[in-house]
Write a structure and sequence with these properties.
By secondary structure, the chain is of the alpha+beta class. It is built from ten helices and four strands; from the N terminus they run βαβαββαααααααα. It binds glutathione (GSH). The site of glutathione has 17 residues, from helix 1.
């Protein structure tokens, strides 16, 4: 029997769910996956009934209850200590950029929402979203210059990569202009087996879960 459950939203759209799901799988927690299709306007009733903050991801594991992806990250790191970089200075850096992701990039998230099944090249470019793209490119370049890549802190996909994975999907969908380092990072993240699995499972979701506002964002 599973030791808990992870509640997530529609895989095609739910960027925060992707973060929590990656973290839980990286930590190899034995939890049942409960997927609640997003209603589209926020406030999905079935999520409100389960999750204390009315949002996904929501994790229950061996008596612990967690919401907010950054809290799930820290719990997963307690269960599997190698998920943050081993080096103290790199670990502080990884936590800082993970927290910056959790707290920010609102303009990018609004202008370029996650949709794993479509591409919208050239759309979603506002001065504010492009400023977020620049900052994210700088964050990735700094981390990868220090670590050597292909992931932010070296050869292992860590919790900081999990936090930025939905940004990678947005860049693949909306295709803002990116430098070589960011393009290489996007390719490395997309090729990770857990990302491939999430994309495949998103592609298998029923058409009834499609949401007009994410499928035709310009309309
Ligand atoms: N700060 C939260 C954000 C979670 C969030 O906004 N989740 C969205 C889905 S991506 C949600 O649950 N929305 C509720 C809904 O659409 O009903 C976290 O880090 O987990």
């Amino acid at each position: 029997m599973a030791e808990g459950r992870l509640v997530i939203g529609t895989k095609r759209y739910s960027s925060w769910s992707l973060r929590g799901w990656l973290m839980v799988h990286l930590a190899r927690l034995d939890v049942e996956e409960v997927l609640v299709p997003l209603a589209g306007g926020g406030g999905t009733a079935a999520i409100r009934d389960i999750s204390p903050n009315g949002l996904v991801p929501y994790l229950e594991h061996r008596g612990a209850r967690m919401w907010e992806s950054i809290a799930i990250a820290e719990y997963c790191a307690e269960c599997a200590p190698g998920l943050w970089p081993a080096d103290r200075i790199a670990r502080a850096h990884a936590r800082s950029i993970a927290a910056e992701m959790h707290a920010g990039f609102r303009a990018l998230r609004i202008a370029m929402p996650m949709n794993l099944g479509r591409t919208f090249p050239g759309q979603g470019r506002t001065p504010e979203s492009l400023a977020d793209v620049s900052r994210i490119e700088a964050i990735w370049a700094e981390a990868m210059t220090a670590s050597g890549g292909p992931f932010l802190f070296g050869g292992d996909f860590c919790l900081a990569d999990a936090m930025y994975a939905p940004i990678v999907t947005r860049f693949l969908t909306w295709q803002p202009e990116l430098g070589a380092t960011a393009r290489a990072y996007c390719a490395a993240v997309r090729a990770h087996p857990l990302m491939a699995r999430w994309y495949d499972e998103a592609a298998a979701e029923p058409a009834a879960w499609l949401l007009e506002k994410y499928e035709n964002p310009a309309s």
